[in-house]
Amino acid sequence: MDSMTVGTPLTLLAMSPRSRRARVGDVHDLALGMPHVTIYPGSQRNPIYQVGGKSFVFFRNPRPDAVDPQTGERYADVIMFWVPSEADKHALVQDEASPFFTTPHFDGHPSVLVRACRIGELTLAELAEVVQDAWLTRASPARATAWLKTSRGRAAT
What is the spatial distance between Cα 131 and Cα 57, in angstroms, rounded to a whole number? Predict the structure, then answer.
């Protein structure tokens, strides 16, 4: 997976048998591993990762738009990632094998949601691509270009 490209849907990526399953801690590590990142504490002290004052990974508070369909209980473990485009969003949420979803609250917003309890359905390499793409969508053009020149294509392990 050394040659991942921006905007490639996860369904098109071949899963390497050497790539371990992702963990919630990897979301934090990968987000912090990107340049110029700051952590903004959310209203319930949930981390919001930002580049240039723009959020790209956001650990959400329990909200009424993301609930258990059987109990109506609000999910307390939803993570939001910005995506490059609506097409990327649709590719991720329409793939039945993907843990990503959206809600009507995010109609027209270039982001996807995933429950932390399902992050292990992704490999570390897949999660790295999602985090990197999220950062690239929010970073300034100069920062994105500089990062792409020096970092894109390295293994995410």
Answer: 7
Pick from 89, 59, 91: nearest CA to 75:
59
Q: Is residue 97 part of a domain?
A: yes
**DSSP 3-state assignment of 94?**
helix
Six-digit token pair at 50? 């930002």
How would you classify the pairing of strands 111-115 and 78-82?
antiparallel
Supply the CATH number for residue 51's domain. 3.90.1150.30
pLDDT, average across residues 76-98:
94
How wide is the angle at C-alpha 107 spanned by C-alphas 104 and 110, nearest 5°?
135
Please report, as a single letter, which amino acid is at residue 63. Answer: R
The predicted-structure confidence for 17-74, as pLDDT tens digits, reads as follows 448 999 999 999 999 999 999 999 888 889 999 999 999 999 999 999 999 999 999 9
Residue 147: pLDDT over 90:
yes
